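Model: You mentioned two targets. I'll fold them one after the other.
Researcher: Yes, keep them separate.
Model: Target one:
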Amino acid sequence: MNMRQINATPGPTTFDPARTALIIIDMQRDFLEPGGFGEALGNDVSSLATAVAPCRRMLDLARAHDMLVIHTREGHRPDLADAPPAKVERGAPSMRIGDAGPMGRILVRGQDGHGIIAALAPDAGEPVIDKPGKGAFYQTDLEIMLHNRRIESLLVCGVTTEVCVHTTVREANDRGFRCIVIGDACGSYFPEFHRVGLEMIAAQGGIFGWVATSADAVASFDDGGHTT
C-alpha cells in the first residue's frame, strides 16, 4: 500500500490513494449561479464561490494520482415523480422545483441549471451520480460503485456544507467509509452553518470523520506525507 498521511482535525489520519475516492457534491449551476434554485430560495449564491478553486485543486490532485473521482448532482425527473411534495412546496410559489427559470426548469435533470459548473466539469469516465435527495447514497448506486472499486476512504467536498455534504458524510460514516472533508472546498450560504458543520464532523474524536484543507491534501502527496 502507498499510504499517505494528511494533517487534519481532530488529528492526522492516513489514506491509501488506490482505495480512496474524491466525491465532489452538487457543484451545480442551480446552486452556484444567479437564476437557479439557490437564489430562488433567497440566498446570495456568490457566497459559494470560495469553494470553487479549492474544489478544482482537489480535482486536479485526484486526476494526477489516478484516484477515482465521482461527481454528484441533486435534481429530479422531468415529471417530478421522485420529488416529495414537502420539498417541492419550499420557497416562493413562482420559483419552486420544476418551475421555469433563467436556466431552464429549476432542479430538473437535463436542464442547464442542473449541470455542473464549467470549472469543475467531469472528464470522460468520471461517474456522475444523479440523486433525488440530500445524501449521495440515497436512491443511488454510489455504495455498490465504491465497493466494486474497493474504496475505503472518501475525500469529500462540495455544497452545501451543512446539507448535502453533511448528509453524505453521515451516510458514508454509517457504512464504514473513512471520510476526510476538505473544509475550504465546501461552502454554505450561511458562514456560521459552514463553520459549525465542519466542527460537528470532527467533534468527539472525529465522530463523522476528519476535516482538512486542500493545502493539507496537496501536502500529503509530498515526500513528507508518505508513510508505510
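Model: Target two:
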Amino acid sequence: MTSAGSGLTLLQTCALSLLVFTGASQFALVGALAAGGNPFTAAAGAFFLGVRNAFYGLRLSQLLALPRAVRPFAAQWVIDETTAVTLAQPTRRAARLGFTVTGASLYVLWNLTTFLGALGAKALGDTDAWGLDAAGPAVFLALLAPMLKTATERAVAALAVLLGLGLLPVLPAGVPVLAAALAAPAVLYLTGRRASVARDDVRDVPDPQDVRDVRGDDR
C-alpha cells in the first residue's frame, strides 16, 4: 500500500518487492518517491540502508560455506531475520536448514502480502485521501526504533533526524536522506575523540605508588 501511495504501479510494486528483498530499503525508496524525490537519490538512500546486509553476508558466507553456484541466489535472502536464525544454530547443517527455511518462507510471504496490499490499494482508488503517504515513514520508524539500544545508536538517529528535517526545506526531495547518512560517521568521530580524551586524562593522573616513592626519596 505504501508503494501505491508513492505512485508506483502494481507491476512496479511487485518487481520492487521481488528484487529488493529488504523492508527498510523498500520503505526508504517509496518514501522518497512519495515526497517527490529524484529516483536516483531515492535509490541511493535505499542502497545505503541495505549496505548492512553485505556485512551479514560476510559472516554467513563463512558459516554456511555454500557452493559458489548457489551463493548469488542465497545472497537475495541475506536479511536481519535469516541472519539471526542462522547464527543461533549449533551446527552448519542446522544453520543451512534455518537459513533456507527462514529465507524461503519470508520471501514467499513478503511478496504475497505485497501483491495483496498493492491490489487493495488499487481498489481503494485515491490513496492520498486515505493518508497512505504517511504509512511508509511510520513503518520505517517502527522498524528502526527497536534497533536503537545504545546511547551511540540513539545519538546517530537523533542527529540524522535533525539533518533530514533541517535540510528538507533547502535541498531537493530525497537528498536530505543521503545527507542524514553523515550522522553515523560524525557521531562515531565525536565518540572516538571523547574516548581518546578520557584515556589521556587517565594517563595524566599520577600513580599513587609513584607519589609515595617520590615522597620517600625526599625524606
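Researcher: Noted. Anything on target two?
Model: Residues 66 and 72 are 10 Å apart (CA to CA).
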